[in-house]
C-alpha cells in the first residue's frame, strides 16, 4: 500500500481518470478535487453542502450525489461525520464540468419525495443512473429512504426501491442485469434483478423491498460505498473493523482486506491494467493505492 495523497477533508467518491489522475469529493470541504499521479492536489469545483459519490457520465461530465452536509467531530486524530449540518436543507444531484468547474443542480426532489442525503451512484448502459439516498440522522430520528433512477439530462427521476435502511454503496453486475445495494447500519448487501432501465423484478422475503440478501457482516462493521471488479465480485468499503469486504457474486464473503482507518469509505480501480485499487481512508484524510488481484469493472461513462 502506498499513500497517494494526505490532508484531505473526508475524501469519498474516487473516480480514476484516463490521464492517470483521481478525482474525488472532499465532503467536509464541500469541494471536488483532482489528485495528479505525482501527488499534486488541484481544485476542480466548489459544490457546497456535502459532495459524496461521484461518477463520470456518458457526456464526460461528473455527476455528484450531494448529501447536503454533515456536522463534524474530531476525535483521536479522526474526522468523524456526526448528524446533519446545522444549515442542512436537503440533498441534490449535481452535474459538474471537470474542465471548467461549473456546477449545475439537476435534481432536489423525485415528485413529492425530497432528496435527503444522496450518497452513491452508478451509470447503466442506457444513459441513466441509479443512486442511493442514505438519508439523515438526527438526535432521536433517522430517515427512511430508498434507491432512485434518473436520466442524466435532467428529464426524469423516480424512487424505485423503498424502503431501505440507510442505503449507501451501489453498483451493477458486469452484464448490467443485477443491481447491488449496501445498507450501512444493517451491514447487509442486497441484490436486485433488473427487468428494464429503471425497473427491478420484485422478489419475495420479509424485507419489503424485494431484494435478495447476498451477505451480512457480523461484528463491529458497517457498510459504506462499493465497487465491482471485472470478475463480478462486489467490493464493499467497510467501516469500524475497517477494510474492503469482497463478496462473491453468488453471495458470501470471499475475503476481507483490512485497512488502517476505521472510516474506509470507497474503492475504485485505475492503472494501465486496471489492477490498482484506490481506497479512500476518510477519517485520516488519505487516498491510498494498492495492487488488486483483479481489474476493476469498466464503468459506463468515460474517463
Automatic annotation (TrEMBL):
Binds 1 divalent metal cation per subunit. Keywords: Metal-binding, Zinc. GO terms for molecular function: metal ion binding. Its cofactor is Zn(2+). SUPFAM superfamilies: Calcium-dependent phosphotriesterase. Substrate binds at residue 119. The active site is at residue 224. Coiled coil: none annotated. A divalent metal cation binds at residues 168, 224. Residues 10-281 form the SMP-30/Gluconolactonase/LRE-like region domain. This is SMP-30/gluconolactonase/LRE family protein. It comes from Sphingomonas changnyeongensis. The lineage of its organism: Bacteria, Pseudomonadati, Pseudomonadota, Alphaproteobacteria, Sphingomonadales.
